[in-house]
Amino acid sequence: MTAQPVLAQQSEAADIVVNMRGVEIADVADQISRLTGRTLILDPAVKGTVTVTSAQPLSPDGVWELFQSVLRANGFAAVRSGRAWRIVPQGSAVRDGGVSSRSASGQELVTRMIRLANVPSAEAARIARPLVASFGSVEPLAQPNAVVVTDYADNVRRIEGLLRSLDGGGGGLTFATVTLRNGNAAEVAQALQAVLGDAAGGAKVAGDARSNTIIVRGTPGAVADARRMIASLDAPGGAAPMTRVFRLNYADAEAVTEVLRGVLGQEATTNNPVARSLSGQRNPRSPTGMLGGLIAQGGSNPAQTAAAAAAASQQQSAQLGGAQQGTPQGFSTPDVTVQPSPDINAVVVRGTPSAVAAIEALIADLDVRRPQVLIEAAIAEITGEEAEQLAIQLGTSGAALTQVEGAATSFGTAGPSLGAILDALGVPMAAALGPGLTANIGIGNDFSILVQALGTSSKSNLLSTPQITTLDNKVGEFVVAQEVP
Length: 485
Hints:
- By secondary structure, the chain is an alpha+beta fold.
- The strands form eight sheets. Strands 12-15-14-13 form a four-stranded antiparallel β-sheet, with helices on one face. A three-stranded mixed β-sheet has the order 2-5-4.
- Keywords: Membrane, Signal.
C-alpha cells in the first residue's frame, strides 16, 4: 500500500493514493486506522487478503468509504461500537448493526424502519425481500404498519424509495362502496376478485351480503375501473332470484308475514288469530266479515239480499283461496314473494338479492324474545253457616204454672222455642226464660219440659290452583270446567 503524500505530510495535503495487491486485511485495517483516525477492532473470523487500486487521490473520508467497499466485497462489514468500529462478518453485522441516520454512508450496514400509510406491511415485505442482500433481512410490523430493513445503507435507501412509491400510489389509496340493485354482492365480489387478482397496487374488493354492497379499495384509477366492472355486472335481469328460509326463534311465522305484508303495502288476508290481532283484520268467516259489504247496500228485498250474500261469499272465497280452511297466506310483489310455513315456524322468501336482504334485516329485528307473564289463581269453595238442632218439648194443660224449678229456652234458630210457646199461652214467666236448657216442673198435675241443643259450623274447600304463562300484552284465559255425563 502506498500513500501520497506520506503520513507526515497529511496535515498539509489530504490527497491519498491507495495501491494494494494481496495485502492481509489486518494490515489494511491498520493502515486505514492510521489514515482516517478511526479505532478499528477486528473480529477473529476476519481473515484474508485484498487487492485495491485507486487511480485518483482520495480524502480520508473517501479512503474510509473505499475500505468499507473492500470489506463488503469480501463478506465483512464495519459496525460502529461506541467510539470504535468493529470489523465482523456480514452475518454478525446484521445482528449487531444499529439504526442509522439519513446521512449514513452507502457502504455502512444499517437497520431502518420504513413506515407505510396505505400498503400493508406484509405486502411491502413480500415486495422488498428479493431486493435485500442474502445476509440482510426484511420484517413486517403490524403495529405500526411498517417494515424493518437491515442491509447496506445504499440498498436500504433504494428499497425505501420503492416502497414509498408504492405506498403513494399516484395520489394515495381511496375506497368506495357500490350498492347493487340487481346483482348479488357475494357473487359480484367473487367475479371481481377473479379478474383483479392479488397484484400489488390493484383494487381490493369485498362483498357485504347484508346490505348487498361491494366495497372497493385501491388507487383512484383502480377504483374507477372496478366501478365500471360492477356497473356492467349489475345490469337489470342479470341477477337470478334467490330463495332463503328464515327460521324464527320467538316470533310467529304468520304474524311476521303480516307485518311484512303491511310494510310492503299489501292487503292482509290472514286466518291466523295471532296475525289477525297484529294486522287488525276481522275473521273472514264471521258474519261481520262476510256481510259487511251487504250492510252498506241497504237492500230491503230479502231475495236480493240473499243473492247479494251468496255473490259476496263466492267472491270472498275466491280472494281468500284456502284461507277458509286455515291455509297460511303469503303475498307477492314485483321483487319478492313471501310465504309462511307454520309447521316449522319459518318464513320462505324468494326474490332479488337486494329485496331478500332487506326482508332479512326486517325479520332479524322482529324475531326477538318477548317478556312473559306468569298468572296464578286459587279457586276455593266456601259453604255458609250450617245449623243442627235437637229439641224435646213437653207440656200439660190446666192451671198456669205457679212454681218454676228451672227454665230453658232454645237458641235463635228456626222453629218455635219454649219461651215463644209459653208467651203464646200467656204464661207470666215466659219473659224470664233465658238461653240454655230449661226444665219446668209444675204443681200437681201441671208439668212442662223443653230439652233443645244447637250446633253451627262453616266449611271451605280449595278446589284448584291453576297457572298460566302468556306473553306480555296478550290475554291469558283460565278454563276450569267439569265434564258432566
